[in-house]
Design a protein that fits this description.
Layout: H1 2-49, H2 55-67, H3 70-97, H4 99-107, H5 112-119, H6 122-137, H7 142-179
Length: about 180
């Protein structure tokens, strides 16, 4: 399991580097900066929406699993995933309602479509960390490594592919697709 974890972490790091390099070459400095702002919006809003659910969930799931309490295990697992989705949906609505001021703060100009596209990623980003903690609670060392490596590869292909096809808007669509 240790080797799989190291391999998964390495794959995630390599695909992240490839994504960044591919976006930098494809979009240029200004486009990469705009993409970075959109990604930061989704990343930070998703983290807030997740409400820090994580390590506590891992501990609670592992305890209920050890006790063999399947009903409690299901309740904790579903709540661990439901709260970030609901928080993400709430922040999605807020971000869409505040698209105009967010656009001017992030980009200094009217890039409403870019904010709206990035906002669509918020619920999915909010779910990523709690999903990994649920897997860890089930004492699945390989699950998070495999999920992380697959996520990194899909995200890299989607973002760079989107950038090649449609510049910054395509890259942000790739951000959304890569996070689903």
């Amino acid at each position: 399991a240790g080797f799989v974890t190291v391999l998964g972490s390495a794959a995630l790091g390599i695909t992240g580097w490839l994504r960044t390099k591919g976006l930098a070459v494809t979009l240029g400095p200004a486009g990469l900066g705009a993409y970075g702002q959109a990604w930061a919006l989704a990343q930070y809003a998703g983290a807030v929406a997740g409400l820090g659910i994580g390590l506590g969930a891992t501990k609670m799931i592992a305890e209920r699993r050890q006790r063999g309490d399947d009903a409690a295990l299901l309740r904790v697992s579903s709540l661990t995933l439901r709260i970030p989705v609901l928080g993400g949906l709430a922040l999605l609505v807020v971000a869409l309602a505040l698209t105009v001021p967010i656009s001017h703060v992030l980009f200094g100009r009217a890039e409403y479509w870019l904010v709206a596209l990035a906002a669509l990623s918020i619920p999915f980003v909010a779910l990523q960390t709690p999903k990994q903690h649920v897997l860890q609670g089930f004492e699945d060392a390989r699950g998070p490594a495999v999920v992380g490596a697959a996520y990194g590869a899909i995200f890299a292909v989607a973002a760079v592919g989107g950038a090649i096809v449609a510049d910054v808007p395509g890259a942000v669509v790739g951000l959304l697709v890569g996070n689903i």
